[in-house]
Design goal:
single chain; alpha+beta; three-stranded mixed β-sheet; two-stranded antiparallel ribbon; 3 helices; 14% strand; globular; binds zinc ion
Amino acid sequence: MDKQQAEAWHKKTQEIRARYPRLFPRPVGFSCPPAWAEIIEDALRQLEKAAERMGLPDDLYPHITDIKEKYGTLRIYHDDYSPAGDDSFDRIVEEAEARSERTCIVCGEPGNISEGGLWCYCDAHRPAVENDFVL
Ligand SMILES: [Zn+2]
């Protein structure tokens, strides 16, 4: 990412956090490709809905502690105060992680991880030499 892209991404992460104040009592940086923004927002929307369905008070919503890339996929870490036996939050973040494995990190369109590769690319964006994507 160049400086301009990094600034645009920073601004967008602030906007996303502002839409889910109950999930972000503290600001958290998103250390991941901007192409994952839609996956992240879908997950946040579902987390909020699940917390509403559980009837949790605002201070027991899943508080996001970190959003980052690890081993080429999306990780969303959160404090979990959900009732025992309800794994809705875990399933939501696992689905987001699985989706990041099928989403091109450049454009957000469907793609795949090539044999021995780390990142998911669509055919149009797969570089001749991989591992040159720097956050
Ligand atoms: Zn692409």
